[in-house]
Amino acid sequence: MPNEASPLTIAAVGCGSRARTYLEIAVGLGDRYSVVAGADPVPERRETLQKISNNPEFRAFESADELLAEDRMADVAFIGTQDNYHFEPAKKALEKGYHLLLEKPAAQTLEETLELTELAKKYDRKILLCFVLRYTPFYSKVHEIIRSGQLGDIISMHAHEGVDAWHHGHSYVRGHWAKTGESTPMIIAKCSHDTDYIAWLLDSQCKSVSSYGRLSYFNQSNAPEGATARCTDGCPHAAPQGGSCMYDAHHYLDKQERWLRMIYPHPTERTKEEVAEWLKTCPWGRCVWKCDNDAVDHQVVNMDFENGSTASLTMTAFDCGRALEVFGTKACLRGGDEHKVISGHDISIRDHESGDTKFIDLDEINDDGYQGHGGGDFGLVNAMDAIFRGEGSESSLIENSVEGHIIGFAAEQSRLNGGKPIELNR
Ligand SMILES: NC(=O)c1ccc[n+]([C@@H]2O[C@H](COP(=O)([O-])OP(=O)(O)OC[C@H]3O[C@@H](n4cnc5c(N)ncnc54)[C@H](O)[C@@H]3O)[C@@H](O)[C@H]2O)c1
Predict the structure, then answer these.
(1) 170 CA from centroid of ligand 1 (Å)
(2) In this model, does residue 348 exceed pLDDT 80?
(3) CB 413 within 8 A of CB 144
(4) Centroid of ligand 1 to alpha carbon of 159 (angstroms)
(5) What is the distance in angstroms between the CA of the first residue and the CA of the last residue of the chain?
(6) Can you tell me whether residue 132 is helix, strand or coil?
(7) Cis peptide before 105 (omega within 30 of 0)
(8) How high does pLDDT run on average in the chain?
(9) Closest ligand 1 atom to 83 CA
(10) Atom of ligand 1 nearest to the CA of 373
């Protein structure tokens, strides 16, 4: 591992949206990081990462296999491929001696996730999971408040994840995470963040999980009359025909244009004409009620923890943003997106004895240009070099942060069994 004076070197396995996001931040941090290689079958993505790297010696490969066939060329391999292709390159990279920055979910099954944990131990490598929410000013502050004891003992917690209706259609109906068999179930793909921070905040193992949820809305029976298979097929509800469907794929050309950055083959260059043509054949041009999706659009999870706390999580396509309520013996904390809309503050803490409420506004505490996932993308990258050098908190290393995956996979098992509680006998 390099010392503080030399940059941490990174090779990207997958040059997609996440790779670009993290590595752009890393390069922006000056001499601390150097991006030395990238693998991706899509040439435009390799080229874009090469540009981002600002490294004339950047090495480009057409696949993970090609990159990982070479001798180790960096301290850290970033595994940023899709959910169904994490385990294999992660395992190979560990065998080659890389430390890993591994996108969540770690793998498609709990067994593979636990195997990676064992392999990290076997090869004495670190696997840092990209649980970016832990690195946001908001969740770091909540963690600090809970640990300070000012809420007293935490008796229960409710977490809320509103995916946002358009985002849901984009990712979990038309997009990469729509078919659970080819990806991971919603409660893992999206909410492993939530089950992770719940376990992190409660600092306890979960002993039992139950869950309900289903796909209620994004299916054929809710398609408006006359809707065509693709928005571009002359659908009467689409904008060119004077329609006003909120899921009309033509919105990728105007108000939802920012989503193209994550899915369009060329990450940075495109014309409206090219995109309009592409929508005629790509998955994102399909009617949201006529896709082959099976990911749920709402799910609830109940959790019972070893330390006596209980927690619940609601995931819904039909709200926008995360929110949290923490019920302690001395005070109750509320915070998050909806809380801010209603109260005008990031966090409120109501003391049970005095009845007084105090407000915390994070902008005043932390106003240093955080962006992406509430500042979590920057926070993770900013913390990463110290963590890999053994000088930072080890709480997000896989062996210390696998609980969220254990809960998520159990929740899916429960959901598929009609909500039957899953006992996590450990
Ligand atoms: N931490 C977070 O908050 C967060 C947010 C979004 C996505 N994710 C996760 O990050 C991962 C990547 O998501 P993304 O949105 O960047 O996806 P993406 O589709 O933009 O990127 C994946 C890239 O992998 C490439 N690829 C495919 N096969 C490959 C191979 N054999 N070798 C090398 N590269 C290959 C693809 O061409 C693509 O460019 C997913 O697992 C996703 O669930 C995490």
Answers:
(1) 15
(2) yes
(3) no
(4) 26
(5) 35
(6) helix
(7) yes
(8) 95
(9) 41
(10) 3
